[in-house]
Amino acid sequence: MRRIAHATVKKLFALLLAAGLLAGIAAGDAAAAHGDAKPEKRGILLVAFGTSVEGAGAAYTNIEKLVKEAFPGVELRWAYSSMIIRRKLAAEKNAVERDSPALALAKMMDEGFTEVVVQPLQTIPGQEFNATAETARAFSGMPKGVRRVVVGMPLLSSTQDLERAAGVLASIVPKERAPGEAVVYVGHGTHHPANVYYPGLQYYLQKKDKLAFVGTVEGSPTLADVQAELTRLKVKKAYLLPFLAVAGDHVHNDIAGDGPDSWKSTLTRAGIACAAVLKGTGESDPVAAIWVDHIKAAMEQLTTPQ
Ligand code: CO
Q1: Whether pTM exceeds 0.90
Q2: Catalytic residue annotation
Q3: 129 and 88 part of one domain
Q4: I need a labelling partner for 302 at 20 to 30 A (CA). Which of 99, 139, 226, 271 fits?
Q5: 50 CA from centroid of ligand 1 (Å)
Q6: Beta pairing partners, 273
Q7: Strand ranges for the chain from DSSP E
Q8: Structural domain count of the chain
Q9: How far away, in angstroms, is 31 Cα from ligand 1 center?
């Protein structure tokens, strides 16, 4: 009996030892023995489509400033998702070169980042946003890489975002706007189902301002839709405001350009005088604050169990 008890105790001891070792491995002790244990290092990767238009980068600079203020001590990186823009910048003298989202994440992996928030600077969750989100997720939990990557939402991604955007967009309207004059926020637009955010925003804008309209360059509402409304309401003057993060090519050509097909030229021909603002929404603090809050939400996700 005593012999058996002794053997049992020995077995138990061996079991406990094995369990202890296993627990140690699970806690990363074994990895530490190989010098692989990484101290926590958080980063933010801002991903924009990119622009090569001079001066348009002011929007990105402003967003960067706000993000740094909101997350002191968290390292910030940039990536441009447009290959055409990246190549253009690489070929230019004195231009700031940008990595692709995948290259930026690979570099962050090598630099020992353990947690990364990827924040796309898109307006809606369309094609560009989803492509970046997919790339980002592929880097989450990669062996010896970033433990967790969380993607922040674009400017408009919920009903609350629409209500909030409708509220703050009034702040980018020039002060000289007189009663009876309209404002038209012109966004990119897409064939992607996420285009619904534009008519969605129109609904909340109309609750606050009967002469505030949303239009898009490549989706719906179209220029013809907006023109019909302005004509119906006998509007004589409209302010054209970009509803894009940066005032790049679409703003300078499609919206405010002097070409016959631009929004400005088309509406002017229809008897509606146009005043175009050449600033992206990223240059407005209250609008950019929506992206910053989406980074905050993503940061909170980093600390919740998967
Ligand atoms: Co475009």
Answers
A1: no
A2: 188
A3: yes
A4: 99
A5: 11
A6: 237
A7: 42-48, 75-80, 115-120, 148-151, 182-187, 212-216, 237-242, 273-276
A8: 2
A9: 47
